[in-house]
Amino acid sequence: MKINLLTRSLLTITAAVALVMGGCATKEPDHRRMDPVYMFTSFHDSDQKFLRFLWSEDGYHWSNVPGTFLEANVGEAKQLRDPSIARGQDGVFHLVWTAGWHDGQGFGYSSSTDLVHWSQQEFIPVMAKEPTTVNVWAPEIFFDELDNQFVITWASTIPGRFPDMLESHTNNQRLYFTTTRDFQNFSPTQLFLDPGFSVIDPFLARDGDHYVLICKDNSRQALALRGAFGKTWIGPWEGMSRLITQRYTEGPCALKVGDDWLIYFDEYREKRYGALKTHDFKSFTDVSGEMSFPEGHKHGTAFQVPHYILDDMLKSQPAHMKSL
């Protein structure tokens, strides 16, 4: 009897230990790297068809993530230019892009949780109520954390809507916007900015308690970047700054690196990328000479992610990837 009781006790203890150990075994340690790394969406002029990425540890020296990660299949031209990305509070990445030089009705859209596998692409017809619209260029997506919504801005020409002055009747751009929380319902398209001249390539950033807008003055006499400040993401914008880059620059985006911001831009005539460093968006230092970018990189968005996102991208070889 004593032996049976002892045996039963030992079995009970053994089962309990096994249960605890088994429970522990199901909770494998998370070895994913959580330290930050910088990423940059990209495309190449040579094909204007595929989503590409760059990566960097310091924001100055950039390398290609091998392969391509999305092939455009929406819009009349089925084109992919100017890919812009933002991540929501749920961790999902949302991507928008220029679907065609003269696809006047809208832009391309897709989403991903890992930057490798993407949802079915959609064409978002944000200018459908303006049938004479010539183009929807460089849609830029910004996540507004305060209202938990996405703001998408872009440039369009509606011939005759604004005085042409020195501009072509089909290239007199103004900035427009829409907002969404779920990418199924979008607010009515509205005018975002009319600075009194042709303007393209908007980029929004939040810096402390104010917002910064960087865009390209696309008027014939300028063709370079300006900036402005606002108390909200929609402004009112406190005027346009002086030109902060040289002529023939476009496609700006800003990335916070340490205590400074880096403003990247495309020197499209020289076929190279440049950058400015600033602490306050009022004074700027040209750090282009300290930058290195892979050949062919074009207009995109720089952003920060946990390192495991990049690690998984480097290890993945999905069927649609193409070797560089």
- Assign the CATH superfamily of the largest domain: Glycosyl hydrolase domain, family 43
The biggest sheet amounts to: 4 strands, antiparallel
User: Strand-residue fraction?
Assistant: 35-45%
Helix content: 10-25%
Instruction: Please provide the ordered H/E string of secondary-structure elements.
Output: HEEEEEEEEEEEEEEEEEEEH
Question: What does this protein structure show overall?
Answer:
The protein has 324 residues and is mostly beta strands. The strands form five sheets. Strands 3-2-1-19 form a four-stranded antiparallel sheet. A four-stranded antiparallel sheet has the order 4-5-6-7, with no helix packed on it. A four-stranded antiparallel sheet has the order 8-9-10-11, with no helix packed on it. The chain has two domains: 1-30; 36-315, Glycosyl hydrolase domain, family 43 (Tachylectin-2, Chain A, 5 Propeller). Helix content is 10%, strand content 39%. The protein has two helices and 19 strands. The chain has helices spanning 2-26, 307-315; strands spanning 36-42, 50-56, 63-71, 81-87, 93-98, 107-112, 122-124, 137-144, 149-156, 174-180, 190-193, 199-207, 210-217, 224-230, 250-257, 260-267, 272-278, 285-286, 302-306. A hairpin with a 5-residue loop joins β4 (81-87) and β5.
